[in-house]
Amino acid sequence: MVNLPNIITLLRIAATPIVVWLIVEQYMMWAFWVFVVAGISDAVDGFIAKQFNMETELGKYLDPIADKALLVSVYITLGIWGHIPTWLVILVVFRDLAIVGGALLFETMTHSLTMQPLMISKINTTLQIALVSAVMAMVGYGIELDGALDLLVALTAAATVLSGLAYAVVWVKNWSQLEDDT
After folding, report:
1. What is the CATH number of the domain that holds 97?
2. pLDDT tens string 129-141
3. Nearest to 169 by CA among 104, 128, 120
């Protein structure tokens, strides 16, 4: 069912190529603001869905797709331009590919995938959004964030690794439970 939260999520997906284009064309201030609005929309659609009992199965799948599309695209683009360390871009992209690949494999093998983000994943997403927002603000507005940016890079890397490991642990437990049930 398409409702207001799902429409907001679809608009976030539609914002992805716009943000990428703005970064590539070096309209970093505009990229920053479109990205910030897209990031805020992530919280808004979740709030509306929960507060007004508008959660849908479609939304449970669309929301992480929107997050991954936006974040991975922006990380790759900022990485290509040298604004984010290459190793962090690789880490972020690899984690997301591993999670999507693991989810597809689990669904294909078991037909029992449920979308339930982990708390560490929510923290990771928040840090990833904060980092690219800070980078775009720094580049677009000439703000100096050297020490704070280094700390944000380290925290984002740690959360990315921990989140990826947490999903791996959940999948191993789920696989073990399914094998025990058979």
Report:
1. 1.20.120.1760
2. 999 999 999 999 9
3. 120
